[in-house]
Amino acid sequence: MEDAQNPQYVLGLDLGTNSLGWAVIGLVDGEPAQLVRAGVRAFEAGMDEGRGLGREESRNKARRDARRANWKLSPLTLTPCPQCKKLRVPHHACQNCGYYDGREAVHVD
Ligand SMILES: [Zn+2]
Q1: How far is the CA of 5 from the centre of ligand 1 (A)?
Q2: Residues 45 and 56 sit within 8 Å (Cβ to Cβ)
Q3: Is the dihedral of CA 12, 31, 7, 4 positive or negative?
């Protein structure tokens, strides 16, 4: 599996008030080598519009800081591809060989 000192992937994030952009970059010898996956999630309520809507959240500084202390990213789950044994995202076609569920789902050059 992955060595914490020598990661194979890097997750990049772009956090905005109305959207969140992300990209998973594959590393080869510690250098960015390929864009594995990327996406964006836009939310309707920005900083001001959402105020007053939905769940109330305490503005107490100690509670706010305690809440923010637990903002964490969960590590990307990767499992070995049954076809080529390289690590891949579960329930997605393998980025290396293109196989999914025992057949070639996407063509990889
Ligand atoms: Zn594969």
Answers
A1: 24
A2: no
A3: negative
CA distance 97 to 82: 10
CA distance 38 to 10: 12
Q: What are the per-10-residue average pLDDT scores of the chain (109 residues)?
A: 72 86 88 86 65 74 91 88 94 94 91
CA angle centred on 60, ends 59 and 61, rounded to 5°: 105
Measured in Å, residue 57 CA sits from the centre of ligand 1 at 45
* Assessment of whether the complete model's pTM goes beyond 0.70: no
24-45 CB burial, b ≥16 within 10 A, e <16: bbbeeeeeeeeebeeeeeeeee
Q: How far is the CA of 87 from the centre of ligand 1 (A)?
A: 8
